[in-house]
Amino acid sequence: MRKHLWLLLLFLALLALPILAKDDAPRPSVMGSPAGNDGTSGDDDGDDEPEIVFSALAEAFRDHCVRVFVHGRSDEGRSPTTLTFDEDIRHERPTPIGGYWWDDRHVVIPDPVIQDRYIRSIEVQIPNDNALYRARIVGRFVKLQALLLEVIPDEDGSYPAAHPLKFVDGDLDEALAFSYAFREGNWRIYAKGGLGEAALTDGGVETVAVGDEGVLLDHLGNPVGLAFGDKLRVDHDNDSYWAGEELHSTPILSRDNALQLGEKLSVQLANAVLETRFRIRVKIDDDDEENAMWAMNLDETQAGTAKAEVRAAGLVVGKRHLLVPVALDSDSILRIEEIVVTTASGQELQADFVGALREYMAVLVEVKENLPTDALPKGFGLLNPMSGPGVPERVLQESRPEMDYFARWRVDYAVGRRRETADYDRWLGTFRGYRGDTLVLTRTNEEDGSLAFDIDGNLAAVALTPRLIRSREPGLGLDQVGSPAFRPLDFLVQKLTADDVFDPFLMPVDEDQGQRLVDMGVEVQALDANTAKLFHVTRESRGGRIGVLVTHVYPESIADRIGLQEHDVLLRIMVEGRNEPMELRSSNYAFQGAFDSGDMASDSFQSMLRYMPPPWPSRENIISTLLTGAGPGKKATVEFMREGEVHSADFVTGYFEPDYRNAKKERFTALGLTIKPITFEVARYFGKSDQSGVIVSKAEDGGKGSVAGLHHYLLITHVDGQAVANPDDFRQKVSAFENGEAKAVELTVEGFGKTRLVKIE
User: Fold this and answer.
1) How many C-beta neighbours within 10 Å does residue 245 have?
2) Which of 199, 314, 403, 584 has the greatest count of CB atoms below 10 A from its CB?
3) CB–CB of 746/736 below 8 Å?
4) In the predicted model, what is the mean pLDDT of the chain?
5) Residues of the chain with pLDDT > 90: what percent?
6) Of the candidates 120, 132, 38, 109, the residue with the CA atom closest to the CA atom of residue 79
7) pLDDT tier at 297, thresholds 50, 70, 90
8) Helix/strand/coil (H, E, C) string of 36-93?
């Protein structure tokens, strides 16, 4: 019990004295002598323990402390992710960091993980001295979250008076954590009692939490260790790298060695990370072409066209395979038309789509000939899913290094050219994340495709984003995903070599198939409290907060085949592969008939119509969104209410006929019109029993059709008095006008309650 007495005395002293010792305060005398007149501590039992006073230890500790000022700067308009530095850079002020003398010329500071490109200069100053000395980073501790600075002498060759830490081997369990920091407008010394909680993982890794970043002192003020990092690893077999005299043999990666590592990786990655371009059919609504930008990285030169290119960095993982971490949603993958890989020499190679990872936002592609690379960084080859299962356990064990410092590398093509970002980070630990997957927690945020290498240049981890819910429904997000994070190499190898690594329903399809929704074939409206009460589903729908009301069932659809009826209330759908049912929610959609009157050929009407949605309900609702995201051919069950009773029906997801937004369109130059076929919901809106005719999806500004008063959402039923059956029939009937053989053509159009004849010359 006595061995803890000095701690108790210290804490009592902390209560009696201010815990903060300011630089500008008078220096109190060091009270290390016995308190009693008889040379004892004054305790009744005659204990010879000296009295411990915080101010005495703090004053002695102050000699080891250094003020460090880091002057930051922006880089190409970007600021560091470290919030303190970001704010200081914006306000043009230095960032203060407390440091400690390592030897006569070097200072050790906690690692703020700010990259060198954001550092303009570093200055140091000893307490109670106004002189400033320049300093530079000479190395980074591999195991400690700390930097080593070298102090540069002033013009006359003098150095500041240094008082290096002289570590002794002491009892770490009895240590106090002393730190030096600039807070509340003053430089202050802080103290916290010893080591915190200990933890032992199932893998046998023992760690302890420390009170604060700084120096561990015994009760006599002797340095016994460093406390840099949230948790410190305990090694019972060897001297801990953060304790005692062994600290001066702690591995340090010099700045020169780090630069050499970066150069080595740059050479290797030139042939191992290649530009991969995905050419994608862009789904653009005719009435909103200017604003139709998907939530992905599109080539700006392609904006507003029927094609787009997504550029990403592909990792060469075999002689002909590349793993491409890229945020392509389900719609984008379905609409991929072409994949091109560009080698380091500029050669373009055609590639085929192999598969999209089931759990992560990444795809595997295969080029048609061997890639021009002989030496890949160690670990890249393990990422090839085509290598199959059976990776030796020894290889997996070697692929997860025990490290703190690591080199981070990212290659991207977001600006239309190759851009490499090389820096470093700190590996804080490996954890279990969403769905039990393994991720690495680091000091900074990651981006898709970032690579982590150990100090020997071996691939250790790849940053990937988990693919959670594929959905376009408002409120659910566009291909809802998690946050990107590093996945250890051995974990990825196990995932990539599994039998079900790819999602079989995330594959490019031809244009006709890609324009079809996976749908049940129903029109629905949202519930509210009154509607739920009217249809006797208040309890099951939670007062109308969930559930959709069926307002129409299309003939020969899946809904028709499984017996759904109007007035059924659909509550939830369970789809194969999902862990829980999807509750159905929707928002009411109603076209208010804004065009029932007025001159449809007027400029004001045309301008207003440009921003209006179609007058018929969209078939892209919560149900089609869920099922299209799940893909065709999956078993599913729908739960619904009918006349106050709960029912369920099983079905297999499948395609339904194209809807208006996805129907194939055709442009007629002479008419200045783009038309689409009549789809189910359009025919129902116009009260047609068949799908004869065509619908105007766009009238070009200044074109003959627009000048004649035509606009989108109009139904064309006749050409020169002859009925139009479909787009092919329409093309044939207007071909003479399009070819210049006929001087005029007369169209019969319907829309918004009116029928009229339009002559175009």
Assistant:
1) 12
2) 314
3) no
4) 78
5) 25
6) 120
7) very low
8) CCCCCCCCCCCCCCCCCCHHHHHHHHHCCEEEEEEEECCECCECCCCHHHHHHHHCCC
Q: Which 8-state DSSP code applies to residue 455?
A: T
- In whole angstroms, give the CA distance from residue 578 to residue 560: 25
Phi-psi region at 626: left, alpha or beta (left = phi > 0; alpha = psi -120 to 50): alpha
With contact defined as beta carbons under 8 Å apart, do 101 and 107 qualify? yes
pTM over 0.90, yes/no = no
* Residue 151 CB partners (closer than 8 Å, separation 6+): 105, 106, 107, 124, 133, 134, 135, 159, 160, 162
Q: Pairing between strand 451-453 and 459-464? A: antiparallel
Strands (E), 576-616: 582-583
CA distances from 45 to 31, 49, 224 (A): 21, 11, 30
Nearest to 127 by CA among 41, 208, 204, 186: 186
Contacts of 707 by beta carbon, 8 Å cutoff, 6+ apart: none
Could you tell me the CA-to-CA distances from 651 to 327, 470, 639 in Å, in that order? 31, 20, 11
Answer for the pair 515, 658: CB distance below 8 angstroms, yes or no.
Answer: yes
Q: Where are the beta strands (DSSP E) in 413-498?
A: 419-432, 438-442, 451-453, 459-464, 467-469, 480-481, 485-488
Residue-wise pLDDT for 565-602, tens only, equals 999 999 999 988 666 677 887 654 433 343 443 454 44
Residue showing tokens 């290096």: 164
DSSP state letter for 144? S
Copy the structure tokens of residue 92. 């043009």
What whole-number distance in Å separates Cα of residue 705 and Cα of residue 407? 61
What are the DSSP calls for 525-574, one per residue? EE--HHHHHHTT-TTTTTTTTS-EEEEEE-TTSHHHHTT--TT-EEEEEE
Which is nearest to 55 in space by CA: 13, 15, 6?
A: 13
**645: number of Cβ within 10 Å:** 9
Is the distance from CB of 750 to CB of 715 less than 8 angstroms? Answer: yes
